[in-house]
Every structure is written in C-alpha cells, then in structure tokens.
Amino acid sequence: MSRRPLQVLALAADPDGIQLLQEAFEELRELQFTRPWLAPVEFNVAESPAEALSMLSARGYDALISDLNLLGGSGHAFLRRVQEEFPELAVLFLVDGGQEGEGFSLVRRGAQDCLLKGELDCLPLARSLRFAVERARIRAALRANCLFDPLTGLYAERAFFDLAGRYLRIAARAGQPAEVRLFALRRREGAGPSCGGGADLALITLAETLKARFCGLEVAGRISALEIALVAARTGEGGQGEDLPAAAVRAPEGDGEKGESAPGGDYAVVTAVVGAAPGRSLEELIAAARAAMCENRRARPVTLR
Known about the structure:
alpha/beta; 5-stranded antiparallel sheet
C-alpha cells in the first residue's frame, strides 16, 4: 500500500551538510522495499531562515530539519517563531558535537529532536523523522482539544494568546492597524448576595453578544475567570480606557430550600480599548487595558447591541 510522502524542508547552507542529507534520503528510498514502515520523503532545501519561513508559508511541510550553525545563536528565537506560525510542524535540529547542550535545550523548548551530524545515518534519521512527525501531530491534536473554553465557546486562554498574537503579527506586517478590546465583568453596586451561577450566566450572555455583534474575522477568548479579550482590526471607535457600550446581566433567581429565594447577583461589563503598536506584545496590551479599567471604574449597565 502506497503511503503519502513526508514533505521535509532542510535549512542548510553547508554543501557537505546538504550532501549528507541527500545521501541519507537516497538510501531511504532504496530501503523502502524491504522496510514497509519507511515512508517516502520529498526533500527541499532552504539556505537562509527567511527563505525557510517563506517556503513553509507557501507549501505544507511535515518536518523542518535545521542546521543550528546557520542560525547564528538565534536558535531559540527561530524555534519560537516557527512554533507560533506553524504549530503542527515537526522541528529537528542538526548539531555539531559541541552543541549538544543547546540542542537538548531546544528539545525542552518544543523541538522534536536534535541530530548529531557525525552520527547521521539513514535509518536513525528515518526513525527520528517518523517519531517527530507523529509527536507533532499528537501535540496538535491535544492543542485542538484544549482550544475552546467549555463555558463560553470562545478560545481558551492559551489558545487565545497563541492565535491573537499571530493575528497582531500578521496585521503589523500587512500595515493593518489593530486593537485589543478587553471586557471584564464587575459586580454592580447594590447587587444582592453573590451567586456563582450568576457569573457563569453573565459570561455566557456576554460571549453570545460578542459572537452576534462581530463578523467572525476577530479572535476572541476567555483569558480569566471574569474577562474576555478580543483582537480585531482597528475601527477608530473609542480609545484607550474609554468605556464602550456594555451589557448588564442579572443572575436568575429561583426557589431555594424551604421556599427561600436563591441568591442572585447583578453584573455589568466594563470595556477598554488599546491600539496595537510596534514592539508591544499582546500581554503588554492586555495589561494596559486592565490598567485603563482601574483608572476608570464606571460600569454602565446598558445593553450591548
């Protein structure tokens, strides 16, 4: 039974290193008839990190094998960028004998493997590639299961920061102004006794309102117990720290034991808008929005339309 070839990109500029990989993959092709577990490999070469990122964007690859020497001491930064932009990609590093410590550090940061150039052989390479691709796929599946918050149906905190951070980077490269909107639930003055179910209902109502209001081109997620954040194209509406229309949500009341009313609670939504700026991370923008809310504590109980 034929198997889909693994699409492998090598980031290497050293002719000897490229030849070493080519010879290993040629040997693998010869061994496929006697070892059915071996998958065929289609192999391409990029000679710079910029070219590698461009090729990864233009075509779907299963694995990237990068020569650590070509990264000039920026292996961790390169790995982080690849993980952010291509989260399903298996990443392996080729290292010299004196670079094993850095290679293991990269594995701890999420790379699938590091391979010693002096010990590179076709069968160990094939096994490493196969296991690396499978681990990357499993990791992607686990991430997909953790993407959404079960209460609101919006992105969960980690997924939001991953996807919204990517949104901001793409917007910056495209010259598209973007903004972060933070929505926080607050107890209204004079509200009755607190009820956990009231906060849940308020979050659900807020999430459904946001889904109805925005067109789906934004990234929205629950980032704390009582906060929802949204990253979108800059509209020019409002400004940093300015309250936008928000929704007041009243917790349901029902019959408790012995005919007593179950505790209810009133929540209002306060918002802050912060424009994205070059060099400011998503975490910094969220912190600025929270600071703006602290400066302006008014929570207007009006309906978000």
